[in-house]
Amino acid sequence: MGSCTRRHFLLSTCFLQMITIIERQVFDFLGYMWAPIFVNFFHILFIIFGFYGAYHFRIKYIITYLIWNFLWIGWNAFLICFYLNVGTLDRDSDLLNLGTGSVSWFEVNGYGCKPTYNTNITSEDPFRPIRPERVDDCLLTYDIVEVVHSGVQCILAFFGILGAILISYIFLDEDDRFDFMNGDAKSPQHTVVHPILIDCDC
Which of 26, 75, 85, 189 is the most buried (most CB within 10 A)? Predict the structure, then answer.
C-alpha cells in the first residue's frame, strides 16, 4: 500500500467520522444529552487534527488523533454497556444527561414509535421532561439505536487507528532514511548542509 493510498484511506476515514459524529451530535442536542454532546465536541476537534495531519503530513497531529481514537473507543464501549444495562449501569439514570432528566431523542421519536403518557402525572420539576409510561410499535427501541450508533463509531475509530499507524510507519521509515548530517527528517529542504573546508598547500 503506497503512501498516497494510506493517506487517502485516513482522509476518507476522517471524513466518514465527521459525517457520522455531526449526525450523532444533532440528535444528542435534540435529546439534551449533555455528556455525549461534550465528548462529541472533542471528537470533532480531534478528527480535524487527524484530517489536517494526514493532509499536510504532520506526524504530531496524527499521533494525537491516534491516541484520542483509543479513548473514543473506550467511551463508546461505555455507552454500549450503559444502554444495555450491563452490571450496575442503568440507562434510565441521569448519568448522561447530567441530572436534567432528558433521554435519547429516539425514545419517543424513533420510526413507528407511539408513546403513551399518564395524564394524571405532572412533573415536580417544570424543567424536567415527563417521560412516557410506555412506547409501542418502535421499529428499533432507542437503546438499540444508541448501541448501533456507538458500534459504528467504534468501527470507524478502529479504521482511523489503522490508518494513523500506517501513515506513522511511513514517517518513521523516512526518519531512518533522511536523518543524516544533523538534518530534519520532515523534508529534504530542511537538511543542514555544512561546508567542507579543504586545506591544501599549493
Answer: 75
Place of cell 482522509: 11
Which residues, 6 or more positions from 45, have their beta carbon under 8 angstroms from its beta carbon? Answer: none
**Domain ranges, residue 34:** 1-95+141-176
Number of domains in the chain: 1
| C-alpha to C-alpha distance for 4 and 48, rounded to whole angstroms | 19
- For the record, the C-alpha cell of 147 comes out as 448501541
| Amino acid found at 167 | I
Residue 4's nearest CA partner among 53, 44, 54 is 54
Return the SS3 of 124. Answer: coil
Rounded Cα–Cα distance for residues 189 and 175 (Å):
14
pLDDT digit string, tens, across residues 157-169: 999 999 999 888 8
Tell whether 34 is covered by a domain: yes
What's the pLDDT band for 180 if we cut at 50, 70, 90? Answer: very low
Inside any domain, residue 59: yes
- Smallest Cα–Cα separation from 147: which of 85, 59, 68? 85
Query: Which among 107, 147, 111 is positioned nearest to 129, based on CA atoms?
Result: 107
The helix (H) or strand (E) run that includes residue 135 is strand 134-136
Residue 49 lies in a domain: yes
DSSP 196: P
d(C-alpha 10, C-alpha 69), whole Å = 13
Q: Cα–Cα distance between 4 and 15 in angstroms, integer? A: 16
